[in-house]
Specification:
This protein is mainly alpha-helical. 67% of the residues lie in helices and 11% in strands. It has a domain of 76 residues: Winged helix-like DNA-binding domain superfamily/Winged helix DNA-binding domain (Arc Repressor Mutant, subunit A). The chain is globular, with a radius of gyration of 20 Å. The protein has a three-stranded antiparallel β-sheet.
Length: 156
């Protein structure tokens, strides 16, 4: 019991620390900015922004997906997603098509150029993985913890 109390006394969260270095939110923010910045030159070569790349990842995983499903996968509102899709369509990478059985639903399809871009994009995860400098196990642990954090925060 004393050990648990000693650990709580050393825990900046338990103590209500307002030091920047003790804030998990800042560590997440700084890591996110650093990783996203590392993506930029790689994605510039593909003609994509980071959010557009995320949309393409969903479509490369499963072509012919509804706009709603893409929004759910990326945790984006349609007001944020729509401009991304318009730019990807204007670039000739995707096409939007109303479903015949439900006019309200729009399906997204890769164009041949969008499908071809997948092969060029295969170098991106490798380069980012190398830049992160984490082992496969560390990457898996980080993904697991970040997903758990997201679930916990969005649930509450």
């Amino acid at each position: 019991m004393d050990q648990a109390m000693d650990q709580a006394a050393d825990d900046p969260v338990e103590q209500g620390s307002l030091l920047l270095q003790d804030q998990l939110c800042f560590a997440l923010y700084a890591a996110s900015r650093a990783v996203t910045a590392r993506y930029r030159p790689l994605l510039d070569e593909l003609g994509l922004t980071y959010p557009q790349y995320l949309v393409m990842l969903v479509l490369w995983e499963r072509d012919r997906v509804s706009v709603r499903d893409v929004g759910t996968a990326l945790q984006l509102e349609s007001s944020t997603l729509s401009p991304l899709l318009k730019r990807l369509e204007a670039a000739g990478l995707i096409r939007r098509e109303r479903r015949a059985d439900d006019e309200r639903s729009v399906a997204l399809h890769l164009t041949p150029a969008g499908a071809e871009l997948r092969d060029k994009a295969r170098t991106v995860p490798v380069a980012i993985g190398e830049a992160m400098g984490l082992s496969s196990e560390q990457q898996a642990t980080a993904r697991h913890l970040l997903r758990l954090l997201t679930e916990n925060v969005t649930r509450g």
